[in-house]
Write a structure and sequence with these properties.
alpha+beta; 6-stranded antiparallel sheet; 10 strands
């Protein structure tokens, strides 16, 4: 799970003195995860201009024949995206111009959807801005909770994030593709000082703290977007709901193990093609 620098700072305050040093390292690393910090990792100079590095299979550009059409879609889409921002953010974005784009593999939850990374540059060589365009589909909750009030799925995602998060990405917005790429996207910065917690190396005490931090963050989001009094009444004053969540979490972990076993068996039997070591 990714934590904002502010959340990481809160975690540092809760740690014992002996653990503060390592936690501050996580915070310091998060503060370097910016567009400028990513420039040398994701881009290189080619014939006097920056170009996104291909890092297959994670970062690739479309076939040469498709590239001009993609670029046209992105250029049109960026104008659409600018209109989705508040006026003060629009002024900031106006200082940048389009340079390059590529397809980028994203998390498991986005498998099967389109995801692009776009490089914009300001007037100076040390002023890059990496944006990520992620395809937004209809919510999986729609069949049960009803259709969203937002027709544009990217707008739905953006407004949901703004409601739930204490501090959202300042450049969250949305756009619609064109032609055969007419998907609905939401847009965010590729790197905006998020830090990753290494859960697998945590001590039991630190894992418990991390769990409390995540729980408090989730509870705050629900309190902001729902009826806090009704939620409190539903949860009650005993541990019934807590135990139900615990059972669900264990069952979900068991299902993940079973899914992964099925996946690795299919790979070993050559029923699916996989690329290892990525």
């Amino acid at each position: 799970m990714a934590l904002t620098a502010r959340a990481c700072d809160y975690a540092v305050q809760q740690l014992k003195k002996g653990e503060i040093k390592s936690a501050k390292k996580v915070l310091a690393k998060a503060q370097t995860r910016t567009s400028l910090g990513s420039l040398s990792k994701f881009a290189e100079r080619v014939e006097g201009r920056y170009q996104i590095k291909q890092q297959p299979p994670l970062i690739v550009r479309p076939p040469e024949a498709e590239s001009p059409a993609f670029e046209q879609v992105i250029r049109q889409g960026l104008a659409d995206y600018a209109r989705s921002l508040d006026p003060d953010r629009r002024v900031v974005l106006d200082h940048y111009h389009y340079v390059d784009f590529a397809r980028k593999v994203v998390g498991v939850g986005s498998v099967g959807t389109e995801a692009l990374m776009v490089l914009l540059m300001g007037d100076l060589e040390d002023d890059p801005l990496f944006l990520q365009l992620k395809q937004a589909s209809t919510s999986v909750l729609a069949p049960y909770a009803g259709a969203s009030e937002y027709e544009h799925q990217g707008e739905r995602v953006v407004n949901g994030q703004r409601l739930m998060q204490a501090a959202s990405d300042t450049l969250l917005g949305w756009l619609t593709g064109a032609g055969e790429h007419k998907h609905e996207f939401y847009v965010r910065q590729l790197r905006d000082m998020k830090g990753s917690a290494a859960v697998e190396t945590m001590t039991p005490e630190r894992l418990a703290l991390y769990g409390r931090l995540c729980g408090a963050t989730l509870a705050r989001a629900h309190a902001r977007t729902g009826n806090a009094a009704k939620i409190l009444g539903y949860l009650g004053d005993d541990d019934t709901f807590d135990r139900a969540l615990e059972r669900f979490a264990v069952a979900y972990a068991d299902q993940n193990d079973a899914d992964y076993a099925a996946f690795t068996a299919a790979a070993e039997d050559h029923r699916i093609d996989v690329e290892r070591g990525v």
